[in-house]
Amino acid sequence: MRTPFVVGNWKLHKTIAESLALVTELKNQLGSLREVAVGVAPPFTALHAVAKRVEDSSLAVAAQDCFWEEKGAFTGEVAPAMLRDAGCTWAIIGHSERRQFFGDTDEAVGKKVKAALAAGLGVIACVGETLAQRDGGATFQIVEQHLAGAVSDLDAAVVDRVVIAYEPVWAIGTGRTATPAQAQEVHAFIRSWLGKQLGAAAAASIRIQYGGSVKPDNAALLMREPDIDGALVGGASLQAADFVAICRAAKPS
Ligand code: 13P
Q1: For the chain, which domains are there?
Q2: Is the confidence at residue 168, as pLDDT, over 90?
Q3: Does pTM top 0.70 for this prediction?
Q4: Could you tell me the distance, in angstroms and rounded to a whole number, from the CA of residue 100 to the centre of ligand 1?
């Protein structure tokens, strides 16, 4: 019922030429994969070139962040409509690296989500606890707080453009993946929270990606869990072969 969605978050990697080389390989290798939706999130500087390169394919292009204002004196920021103009159809919002290094608060994340949706973008809203929070038994409380900040009062008309990414901070870039059972437990919690806030139909249709050290050798078991609907992939999305293997592993069996 939910088409799995796998997105490569390239973070602060790749020039325009490198981005084009990678996305061209992905386009060639993933052309026949029908049952999985796939996207890439290059750095801002490569978005337009990548979007042009994939416009005759089903690959989607996502930004790694966006601002909430449409225009004005906001040096360094990029507006959602500018991202659409560059060929993006999605934006990742509230990634833990934005929260940790750039001060994105729950309130800021909420404003960005609203602005991106209003401009017609799809949104991948990231939630997830740190190791100290997990060890302190606060996982569900933190995830709920992130969800409330990001997606508490959405219009039913936009939920098909909303994806939640559960990314436990302790699993990002550490090689330490959540076990399928650990991830499924939180994904089920997220879906039940979405059901209470947005209704059963929205909760059943919203895709929940897992992110945090997803690799070709652990993807299949994670993707088999009932509430895991794809992946947000960092390091392993920088090599075509690894990312293609993860996309294939997300295919419903
Ligand atoms: P890694 O796959 O490198 O752990 O990164 C995950 C992530 O942060 C994706 O947004």
Answers
A1: 5-249 (3.20.20.70)
A2: yes
A3: yes
A4: 14
